[in-house]
Design a protein that fits this description.
Elements: E1 17-20, E2 24-29, E3 41-46, H1 48-58, E4 63-66, E5 68-70, H2 73-84, E6 93-95, E7 102-106, E8 110-114, E9 138-142, H3 143-148, H4 150-163, E10 169-173, H5 183-196, E11 199-203, H6 204-211, H7 216-222, E12 228-233, E13 237-242, E14 245-250, H8 262-275, H9 280-295
Helix pairs in contact: 1-8, 8-9
Family: Belongs to the carbohydrate kinase PfkB family.
Pfam family, one: PfkB
InterPro entries: Carb_kinase_PfkB-like (IPR052700), PfkB_dom (IPR011611), Ribokinase-like (IPR029056)
Length: 313
């Protein structure tokens, strides 16, 4: 494995929420227009798990994000930006032998990724060796990480093994990305991980692609033992199965500018409410409220703490 520089960990309270996963530099049109004709682009960090940590931090939950970045200007910018959101980045490291990944948002048309052999794709179990996962209340990661590389899949397995049996709960967002792996390979791997998690987030559309599920009940049938199973159905709403009960909360009517990142915002809103001890309906509503803010923006995140954080290119 290439040498990876360790971050200097400073002493401090263990965050209630620890997230683990890749973050790239995202370039997005400043306005809701196609990438092909946009004249101004903005730079923002973009990554499922750092998004969750940033949203949760803005909601008052002490949160940390763990990852590996390149030893480059983009990596330094990402770390600084996420830290300014109030996220604990003491366990973020830099790999001098690999670059930070980049991706472009094309509003309404998808995303273009440039992440091959990125620093984060070289993460492995050693990435979390010094992270006190067992002392957090919730550890959150997603299925994206498993698809990045074999060492990243080993990282996910190590996290699951360490959190199992500890006082922490394991939160897992299925986050299936067809651009990273085919459904034939992803379906059994993601189902196995979801069955071992305490809290699972999955979109009904991705459950259909992966496991031929048509209804929330179909998803519950293949994940019957999950402590809290949250199934998101776009502009319809979200269903939670927990403690032998089923609850549904309708989505908030919203004019969607860009959907990418809304799932991360939902997870953060839900987890923050769960850490506050809120009941099911409040948890689901908190997820919808946070997701709505992202749906109204071209960014994965909202409420930038420093106006100058966005640079035009």
């Amino acid at each position: 494995m290439p040498h990876t520089a360790r971050a200097t960990a400073t002493a401090g309270p263990i965050p209630r929420l620890i997230t683990i996963g890749e973050t790239m530099m995202m370039l997005t049109p400043e306005h809701a227009e196609p990438l092909a004709t946009a004249s101004k682009l903005s730079l923002h960090p973009g990554g499922a798990e750092s998004n969750v940590a940033s949203h949760a931090a803005h909601l008052g939950i002490p949160s940390a994000w763990v990852s590996v970045l390149g030893e480059d200007v983009l990596g330094r910018r990402i770390r600084t930006s996420i830290e300014r959101h109030g996220v604990d980045v003491r366990w973020v490291t830099n790999n001098p032998d690999a670059s930070t990944g980049v991706y472009f948002k094309d509003p309404g048309r998808g995303v273009l990724y440039y992440r091959r052999d990125s620093a984060a794709s070289r993460m492995g179990p050693s990435t979390v060796a010094s992270v006190p996962l067992e002392q957090a209340e919730i550890v959150h990661l997603s299925g994206i990480t498993s698809a990045l590389s074999s060492s990243c899949a080993d990282l996910v397995e190590a996290v699951f093994e360490r959190v199992a049996g500890s006082g922490a709960s394991l939160s897992f967002d299925v986050n299936y990305r067809p651009s990273l792996w085919r459904a034939g390979a992803a379906a059994p791997a993601l189902l196995s991980l979801a069955n071992r998690a305490d809290i699972v987030f999955v979109g009904l559309d991705e459950a259909q692609s992966l496991w031929d599920c048509v209804t929330p009940e179909d998803v519950h049938a293949i994940l019957p033992d999950t402590g809290r199973l949250i199934i998101k159905d776009g502009d319809v709403g979200a269903t939670e199965f927990s403690a032998g009960t089923r609850a549904f909360e309708p989505a908030i009517p919203t004019e969607v500018i860009e959907a990418v990142g809304a799932g991360d915002a939902f997870a953060a809103g839900y987890l923050s409410a769960a850490l506050r001890g809120d009941p099911t309906a409040v948890r689901l509503r908190a997820g919808h409220e946070r997701a709505r803010l992202v749906l109204l923006s071209t960014s994965d995140f909202i409420a930038e703490p420093v106006p100058t954080q966005t640079s035009k290119i």
